[in-house]
Write a structure and sequence with these properties.
The structure holds two protein chains of two kinds. Chain A is of the alpha/beta class. Helices cover 39% and strands 11% of the residues of chain A. In chain A, strands 1-2-3-7-6 form a five-stranded parallel beta sheet, with helices on both faces. In chain A, strand 2, helix 6 and strand 3 form a beta-alpha-beta unit. In chain B, 38% of the residues lie in helices and 19% in strands. The chains are: A alpha/beta, B alpha/beta.
């Protein structure tokens, strides 16, 4: 994969901004859903769908596509928003999130949106599915298959025992086509991950299970591309890109605050947060102006 | 008498009737399924010989994945393989799959509607000496409550072989229940088998009898012997083999209820949520008749010899016989 040009970085920045705005709009329309994770992973998803993935939004079932398996289904607003902006379905459909009859279920469900690779929600089982896909692909196409299997998962779901069963198996099977991108945002519902259930030293843990580890700033487009590029070059074992992200990235009052794990803005007053009537306005202003750095196009 | 059209084992009631573990039929069937379809793959969590998946492993080593003791991972890995076009069979003890990994089966296999076949061996108290932790007597309930799931409980090794081969072509999540112990061979290669269809093994379709016995799994053999005993006492009976518990054969059950007026269900499983529950659901809505239930009555198992345990938990021939007489009394 070639390194990013300045022009491409600017393009990705703008896409990520539009996707974040869509995330806030769809969550506000739904009146429930997770904010912090989707905003934090917007740069990773943007880079995947607009630069890294081999895919075709006009032919979502194309056999040769890379597979993106979302394990922590609760961040699906970022999946749906990125897919819509990439052309899989109309952006306006995003406002149906979590409503009766929608294709965009509260957690991903293939029965309603068959173009998804998997349904998910209960944590810790996405990696197993990605491992199964990579094993099946190797049976059919051998180690030189040109498909990659990207599993997007959260740090909190590493609390699940099943995650480690899958990590063991991927190491044993030396799945070179498997690349995990871990959302290392340090929060989960009950608090900070290192308080709830310490995970560090994560790099050492994965290395000792036979994984190649990359650790990056998950908001740096070049770093994402370069780390995934190096992971792709590792053919004799699975890779993990530990993407350090800021939960709620882009919205001043949400950034780094675990209280915003499971709520959209505008629903309730919280100690130390803007009044609920102000939250949506501030959030959209923050996003559209990149935190006041630029004059928002849509202001 | 035995329904001749079913072409059952002619030596069925001999003292030395041939006995084979039901799980062996799974192992044989998986090899046949693997020969027929190159997409068939096998996954096992450290019980490859016990579940007889070693037959497949030895024949198709490149299509077998050893999972280690990790049933939850196994279910979801199989789902991923099915997403890529494979037809995965996963095997363990029923207690661990679908017991331990129920949520993974629900979400990653059934909610995704992936054609994974779950073979749960060592079901029932007849596992024996290992004791209650290893005796799955809730697995039918666990499996049949999940949407999209097909549930098959074969009565002998031959039926298990046929069910295993047929499952590859269903394109749906499927649970096949297997037992450990050698049990009498009831059927033959020529006995009809169709997923979703119950078969009348004793009595004739149109014939009216005093009682109708509905059985699943290895206890079907005892049900057939009870029908013979009843005949000697001038009580007529029919015996229906319900191998597919979901989707259940409503037509066959209603027909049986109409021609007998009384039903006794027989299973080596909790009555709650098992065959008994399933039959009661169907008949109460379509053709209510008195029903007696033979099965585990809301208890856990324990160590012992299989026959001792079946007697202790009320699933012996004498219990089935008494249940038949009780239900006939309720009719009059």
């Amino acid at each position: 994969m070639r390194n990013l040009t300045d022009e491409k970085i600017k393009f990705l920045e703008e896409k990520a901004r539009d996707i974040r705005v869509s995330i806030i709009e769809m969550l506000v329309s739904a009146g429930s859903g997770h904010s912090a994770g989707p905003l934090g992973m917007a740069d990773v998803f943007t880079t995947l769908y607009f630069y890294i993935l081999k895919h075709n939004p006009k032919d979502p079932f194309w056999e040769g596509r890379d597979r993106l398996i979302l394990s922590n289904g609760h961040i699906n607003p970022v999946l749906y928003a990125t897919m819509a902006h990439a052309g899989y379905f109309p952006v306006k459909e995003l406002l149906t999130l979590r409503k009766f009859g929608t294709r965009l279920q509260g957690h991903p469900h293939r029965e309603y949106l068959p173009m998804l690779e998997n349904s998910s929600g209960p944590l810790g089982s996405g990696l197993s599915q990605a491992v199964g896909m990579a094993i099946a692909d190797r049976m059919d196409r051998g180690k030189t298959s040109d498909r990659f299997f990207y599993c997007l998962m959260s740090d909190g779901e590493l609390d699940e025992g099943q995650s480690w069963e899958a990590i063991l198996l991927a190491g044993k099977e030396r799945l070179g086509k498997l690349i995990v991108i871990l959302d290392r945002n340090n929060i989960q519902i009950d608090g900070y991950t290192e308080d709830v259930m310490p995970l560090e030293p994560l790099t050492h843990k994965f290395e000792s299970f036979g994984w190649h580890v990359e650790e990056i700033d998950g908001h740096n487009f070049s770093a994402i591309v370069e780390a995934v590029g190096r992971a792709q070059a590792v053919f004799d074992g699975p890779s993990i890109v530990i993407a350090r992200t800021i939960p709620g990235k882009g919205v001043s009052f949400m950034e780094g605050d675990y209280k915003w794990h499971g709520d959209p803005p505008g629903i309730k007053d919280m100690a130390g947060e803007p009044a609920k009537e102000e939250q949506v306005k501030i959030a959209l202003h923050d996003l559209r102006t990149l935190g006041g750095q630029i004059k928002g196009e849509h202001e | 008498m035995i329904n001749q059209s079913q072409k059952l084992n002619p030596k069925l009631f001999d003292k030395k009737v041939e006995e084979i573990p039901i799980r062996k039929g799974f192992g044989d069937g998986l090899v046949i399924a693997g020969e027929k379809n190159p997409q068939v793959v096998g996954l096992c969590s450290d019980l490859t010989v016990s579940t007889t998946m070693n037959l497949f492993r030895d024949k198709f080593p490149e299509r077998f994945v050893e999972m280690g003791v990790a049933e939850q991972n196994m279910a979801s890995v199989a789902s991923g393989m099915a997403a890529m076009g494979k037809i995965p069979y996963i095997s363990s003890y029923a207690m661990f799959s679908p017991g331990r990994n129920w949520e993974q089966i629900r979400t990653t296999i059934c909610y995704n509607d992936r054609p994974v076949i779950i073979a749960g061996s060592h079901a029932g108290v007849s596992v024996g000496a290992d004791g209650g932790t290893h005796q799955a007597i809730e697995d039918i309930a666990l499996a049949r409550v999940i949407p999209n799931m097909i549930v098959i409980s074969p009565c002998d090794a031959i039926e298990a072989r046929k069910a295993t081969v047929a499952a590859a072509g269903l394109g749906k999540p499927t649970y096949i229940r297997l037992a450990r112990e050698a049990t009498p061979v009831i059927t033959t290669d020529d006995t009809p088998f169709e997923v979703g269809k119950a078969q009348l093994y004793y009595g004739e379709e149109k014939e009216k009898t005093d009682v109708g016995i509905v059985a699943t799994g290895a206890l079907l053999y005892k049900a057939l012997k009870v029908a013979e005993t009843l005949k000697a006492e001038n009580i007529s009976a029919k015996v229906l083999n319900v191998a597919t518990i979901k989707p259940i054969d409503v037509e066959a059950l209603v027909s049986l209820a109409k021609t007998t007026g009384t039903i006794v269900t027989v299973e080596e499983h909790q009555i709650i949520g098992g065959l008994g529950g399933a039959v009661a659901e169907v008949l109460s809505q379509n053709f209510p008749v008195p029903i007696e239930f033979i099965g585990i009555q809301d208890k856990f198992g324990q160590s012992g010899r299989p026959e001792e345990l079946l007697e202790h938990y009320g699933m012996g021939e004498s219990h089935i016989l008494k249940a038949c007489k009780r239900v006939i009394e309720r009719k009059s």
